[in-house]
Structures are given as C-alpha cells and as structure tokens.
C-alpha cells in the first residue's frame, strides 16, 4: 500500500526528533564499548512504521485545529511521540530475543540480539524503558507529565504489554487452553493498550478531553484490528513483503477461527472504526484506519 506524502512527512519528523533527542546525549565522547552501544541504541529505534506516534500526532493536530507545519521537535506532543516509539522499540527488541519469540528479522533487518548480542539487546531495552521517564518529565505542565507517566506505565504493565506477553508465553506451551476470548484479551493487553495510550494522549495534549468518550471504542477496536491484521500478514504475505519473519503459529486468530472468519472479523472491526472516525472529518485518520486493514508491513 503506497503511503501518502503527509505520512512520510510525519514519519520523517518523528525519526528526526528521536535522533535529535538521542544525539544530545550520544554525541558526548565515551569509551570504546559505549561507542558500539550507541550504535545499538540508534539501530533499535530506526525504521518501522511509527504508526502509534503518527496516530497520536494526527489526533492532536485534528482536535486542536493545528497545522503540521506549526509543530516543533521540542513540543510536548513530540516528546510524547519519542517516548512512545522508545517504549515500542524496547518491547520489540525484547520480544525478538531467543528466550521469547526467537526472531532473526525485524523491520527488514537483523534483530538487535542477532546483529549485536543478547546482552546488548537486554541493556538497550532497559535503557529505552528508562529514557521515556526522562522525556516525559520534560513536559511543560507537571500535572500532565505526572498523568502521562501513570498512563504509559499502565500500558506497559497493568493489564498491558508485560501481562499480555506473560500470557503469550504461557499459551505457547498450553495451547489447548487457548480460545478466541483468551486470545482477544491477550492481544488487548499486548497490543492495544499502547495504541490506546497513543490516541488518548493525542486527544489530551490537544486540550480537547471532552472527546475522549467518543473515541473509547475507536482505539479499542483499532488496536484489535491491528493485531488481527498482524496475524493475517503471517499467512497472506511472504517474509520479503512484510520485512519480518513469517510463520504458522498456533496462537493466532487464523489458527483458532480459520482464515475467512479472521478476514471477516477484521473487516467488521474496521467498519466500526470508520463509523466512529467519521465524526472527526479527518481524511488522514480515515487513511490510518484503512492502512491498518490494508497494510502489508
Ligand atoms: C515491558 C515494554 C515491555 C515489554 C516486555 C516483550 C514484551 C514485554 C512485550 C511484547 C509486546 C509486543 C512485541 C507486542 C507486539 C505488538 C506488535 C504487533 C508489534 C508490531 O508493531 P508494528 O507493526 O511494528 O507497528 P513497526 O516495526 O512498524 O514499528
């Protein structure tokens, strides 16, 4: 699916902001081992769709009636985007490790543990999951910064990514206990909590909290659609097309319900998202919804 120019502009801004932020620290002279580790840090955050932060940014812009050109790399919304991408990168680096998914390919490149080493993959994850606190603590309003820290922390642990990953690892060896309900719950924790945080905070930073109730269902459904599509990618596309390892896994909607039912499920959830996003009248958000359904990466 071809990405529109604006998507690439957003992505470019996010990537530049991450680089700029890291460079403030990484340009300081250090010892030889740390020089190599700096490369690992940059490698972990590079590439990827940056979808979570693009969602945050677009909700922020639409609801605050701001133009993309008015955004500066040190605006609070950009700090939030950098933090989101660091947390996401951290979860991917750890998820790929031999003790978890044991993946060798991510974002079209070797996974961090495969290219560098397992100890560096663990440490770069530790670092990224610490750095976001510092970034969020730089947000101008201390009340917002405090609220944001709690929400992000919940997306990571409390019914969030870590809990989802614990269940994921458990069902790996106890597949007979898995059913559609458990799988939905697992994905809700593992995947949609961070997507929820992205949209919710795009709204809050825009100053339009009154819109939160309208979009509650939206982010829940979009997060699930994202994961259902992720499962489908593994059966519908090749490794070259998706830029990641694809294989048949038993923990999938496709495995539990069959490919046709999974496609129908995706289509239904996406239609629900479209009817909610229509309220916003943003072509860009409509595109992001379509993108979740039609992406090949
Ligand atoms: C405490 C943050 C934290 C993690 C430790 C490893 C782990 C616990 C959780 C795993 C969470 C995880 C990897 C969820 C998968 C979500 C998913 C489908 C990721 C792929 O996202 P994309 O397609 O990736 O947006 P790109 O490469 O485009 O950024």
Could you list some keywords that capture this structure?
single chain; 297 residues; two-stranded antiparallel sheet; globular; binds geranylgeranyl diphosphate
Brief characterization of the structure:
It contains 14 helices and 2 strands; from the N terminus they run ααααββαααααααααα.
Which outline best applies? globular
Q: How many distinct domains?
A: 1
CATH homologous superfamily name? Farnesyl Diphosphate Synthase
Estimate the mean pLDDT confidence: 91
**In what range is the share of β-strand residues?**
under 5%
Spatial arrangement of strands, main beta sheet = 1-2
Low-confidence parts: none
The CATH topology is what?
Answer: Farnesyl Diphosphate Synthase
| Largest sheet entry | 2 strands, antiparallel
- How far from one another are the termini? 9 Å
Provide the list of bound ligands, each named once.
geranylgeranyl diphosphate
Helix percent band: over 70%
Q: Judging by the overall fold, what is the CATH architecture?
A: Orthogonal Bundle
Our Rg estimate from Cα atoms comes to 19 Å
Q: Assign the structural class, choosing from mainly alpha, mainly beta, alpha/beta, alpha+beta, or little secondary structure.
A: mainly alpha
Task: Please give the CATH class.
Answer: Mainly Alpha
Number of helices: 14
Beta strands, count: 2
């Amino acid at each position: 699916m071809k990405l529109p120019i604006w998507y690439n502009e957003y992505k470019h801004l996010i990537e530049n902001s991450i680089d700029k932020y890291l460079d403030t620290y990484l340009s300081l002279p250090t010892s030889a081992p740390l020089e190599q580790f700096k490369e690992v840090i940059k490698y972990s955050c590079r590439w990827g769709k940056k979808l979570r932060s693009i969602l945050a940014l677009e909700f922020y812009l639409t609801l605050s009636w701001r133009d993309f050109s008015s955004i500066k790399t040190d605006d609070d919304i950009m700090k939030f985007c950098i933090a989101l991408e660091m947390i996401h990168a951290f979860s991917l680096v750890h998820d790929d490790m031999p003790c978890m998914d044991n993946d060798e390919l991510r974002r079209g490149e070797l996974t961090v543990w495969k290219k560098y080493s397992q100890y560096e993959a663990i440490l770069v994850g530790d670092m990224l999951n610490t750095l976001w606190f510092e970034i969020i603590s730089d947000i101008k309003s201390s009340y917002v910064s405090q609220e944001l820290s709690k929400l992000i922390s919940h997306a990571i642990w409390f019914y969030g990514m870590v809990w989802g990953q614990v269940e994921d690892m458990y069902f790996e060896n106890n597949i007979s206990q898995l059913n559609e309900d458990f799988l939905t719950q697992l994905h809700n924790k593992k995947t949609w909590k961070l997507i929820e945080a992205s949209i919710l905070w795009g709204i809050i930073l825009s100053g339009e909290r009154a819109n939160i109730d309208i979009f509650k269902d939206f982010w829940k459904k979009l997060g699930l659609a994202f994961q259902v599509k992720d499962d489908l990618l593994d059966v519908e596309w090749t490794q070259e097309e998706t830029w990641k390892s694809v294989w048949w896994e038993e923990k999938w909607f496709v495995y539990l319900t069959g490919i046709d039912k999974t496609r129908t499920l995706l289509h239904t959830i996406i239609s629900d998202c479209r009817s909610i996003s229509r309220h916003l009248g943003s072509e860009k958000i409509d595109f992001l919804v379509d993108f979740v359904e039609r992406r090949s990466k």
